[in-house]
Amino acid sequence: MTTDPLSLALAAVGAMLLAVTLPGTVELALLTLGALLPRRRPADPTGGPALRLAVVVPAHDEQETIAACVTSLLACRGAQADTQIAVVADNCTDATATRARQAGARVLVRHDPERRGKGYALDFAFGQLLAEPCDAVLVVDADTSASPDLLQEVRRWLAAGADAVQVRYGVRNPEASHRTRLLHVALLAFNYLRPRGRHRLGLSAGLLGNGFALRREVVERVPYAARSVVEDLEYHLALIKAGYRVCFAEGAEVLADMPVQGKGVRTQRARWEGGRLRQAIDWAPRLATAVLRGRLRLLEPLLDLALLPLAFHVVLLVLALTLPVPWVRATAAAALAVVGLHVLTAVVLGGGGRRELLALATAPLYVLWKLVQLPRVARAARRDAEWVRTQRAPVKGDSGSEGTP
Known about the structure:
- The chain is built from 15 helices and eight strands.
- By secondary structure, it is an alpha/beta fold.
- An eight-stranded mixed β-sheet has the order 3-2-1-4-7-6-8-5, sandwiched between helices.
């Protein structure tokens, strides 16, 4: 065993890199294996009155997409049975409210420029709708199209006793660019494989911000007080700490367009990753304390918060792989194999194919682009970070970073 200072220093650096990535590696391995377990299906409901469902569509200046979203929801099977579509026109300066009404939705208008963001809009809507005869709320984003069985599948799980339900959430425009194709692959892992793995392990599947439903009793006990730029993650952490579990209804799906280039891409990624970092800073100590006190079901959410964005996770493991320390290299190689298995399993189980696998060839460029975005991520991680609407259409005159994914 060598003891020269350089070798010891390199081993220490390698140990540090592996320690930072270890929780994420464990999380990826756990959820990949969980996703391969037999499917959990809801128990057959025992009868009783039909569940009264309100579909809440938060919308801020969404006049171009809101009518199509409402039409998609009204076309779902069971849309006319004890279901209402309620669009929240939140601080809108365009014709969102008018177009939503014309499409057949009820419109709740909210004006409060000092309190902006999706969390405020949902809390406003839930307060009004749950004061009426309503058993559960289903949140669908304004740029979304729903699968025909969305409402039936959500009702089925809720009628079987689920506290909350998350359906599959995917990309509607994967063919728009190599960037959206790669994002499609990433979301097969993040929005499909991981919730599926959690659910099949008997854990809470998580909330993805779009296509999730909550029972009345759940919202009454845990009010939707999430105000961060990733309010879905924040609220899910509050739910699991209160003892609730989200079921994953993979038989239904919502699809939304992802930004193709320019400012929309940068804004969305910074919000997602900076927001998750903020939640990790705020919640990890609380979850760790609860785990040490015996609440072992909170260990997986803690591992999830400790998992770095996959691009950064891979960068640290590649750095470890380059160090001339045999045990560090072997461990890093094994961890990278876990990442590869995770992504490959997500593509196969998620219905992807050759195009998704080919899109992975652009991943190194995407990683470089992500590294450039670190200052934006840091700003989005501030406690006072403001929610900014994602621009899904290219901004005129903004060349963005179209050459990199």
